[in-house]
Amino acid sequence: MSNSSSLNEFLLLAFADTRELQLLHFSLFLGIYLAALLGNGLIITAVACDHRLHTPMYFFLLNLSLLDLGTVSTTVPKSMANSLWDTRAISYSGCAAQVFLVVFLLGGEYSLLTVMAYDRYIAICKPLHYETLMGNRACVRMAAAAWVSGFLHALIHTANTFSIPLCQGNVVDQFFCEIPQILKLSCSDAYFTEVGLIVVSGCLVSGCFIFIVLSYVQIFTVVLRMPSEQGRHKAFSTCLPHLAVVSLFLSTDTFAYLKPPSISSPALDLVVSVLYSVVPPTLNPLIYSMRNKELKDALRKVISWTFFST
């Protein structure tokens, strides 16, 4: 029996146990990681360099891309390194850092998606008040609040999780350190405190979800009443990508944490964890750029300047 004071490493769940499959996993994750870096990096560069994109919506999109880069960089490189070097180990401090960063970045992203829903609501339902309510200072404060809320959320959960005595070994049934899997190693009822915190977090997430849903109910009510087809198309082109990102983020997260125990298995948990921690940061840039002409034009300029400038 071990305890948390004597643990100096954890063993993560391996994707494969043969060398060929380990190298295949490394190659697939490398491709996904590079795609996420390229897509989010291009959006950050485009928004920062194109003055036409210096608006609240794109400012929040830039922050979303930063959070996505952080999320995918927290989990994927370590998993790739473990497959490449044929190991499962992660240090105790490295595991704590992963837990903190994953909760921080995912919590910040959900808060930011809520702020982005508010931005779209004001832009479409209260356009005459948009410049007043969504000024530069207000936008910076809302983005900062999203980051700070994620930070405080992560600080509380990480400190509480790693203060719980662990005596059920050091094997984490996940490819990165995740709170529910670490709680399985607990040897006391102290984990109920963390479960309580998770329930409180779930209530806050539900509140944000209700806010997003109500915002879009009012948005679609206003859009469908617009007499101009061009106006409806423009409104949908700015709202549907955000709605798609929210749906992808929430559906994968909800299934990961609320799936019935009867269908739970290490293989399924592994697939689901990839869906909520790796897929959204990779697909978000594609989702936002598909129907957005301004962003596509800015991205073309960035690509042209990057690859064809002398």
TrEMBL record:
Tell where it localizes: Cell membrane
Please provide the record's keywords in A-Z order: Cell membrane, G-protein coupled receptor, Membrane, Olfaction, Receptor, Sensory transduction, Transducer, Transmembrane, Transmembrane helix
Signal peptide extent = none
Domain G-protein coupled receptors family 1 profile, by residue range, is 39-288
For this UniProt entry, which segments traverse the membrane?
23-45, 57-76, 96-118, 138-156, 195-223
CDD domains documented for this protein: 7tmA_OR14-like
Q: Which Pfam families match?
A: 7tm_4
Main localization category: membrane
Q: How does it sit in the membrane?
A: Multi-pass membrane protein
* Family, similarity comment: Belongs to the G-protein coupled receptor 1 family.
**Per its record, how is this protein called by name?**
Olfactory receptor
Task: Please tell me the species this chain comes from.
Answer: Apteryx mantelli (North Island brown kiwi)
